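Sequence in, structure out. Go.
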Amino acid sequence: MIEQPRNEAGTMEVALADVERELALLGDALRRRDDGALERHSVDLHRALVRAVEVFTDAARQGQVPPELRERLAVATRLVAAHRESLARATAALDRAIDVLIPQDRPVVYPRSRTPGSIGSACSS
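Output:
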């Protein structure tokens, strides 16, 4: 087993803990349906993920990612995917509700006849 430099493993731990914290906060915001918190924690999660990817990529190049941190990162990745799926379902449900509440103008399939009894007159020209 390769011995990890303490500062490298510590940096990965801090970066991963930030991701896990933001995922938990985002999950709470999703459950509460708190739009402001969703926006805030989405941005914070994105930043934490960018940082974690940088730190883990550097460590992986040197072969220095401890298995327990690798597993925690995999769990966090699955949780991000679950949150993304949850948001996609909520968005689809909202889109359906909007379609019902605010119907789109539908194109007219048959032109209106201008005079009574002129059924088919549009086709008889």
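Check: The chain has a mean pLDDT of 82. Residues 6-101 form one domain.
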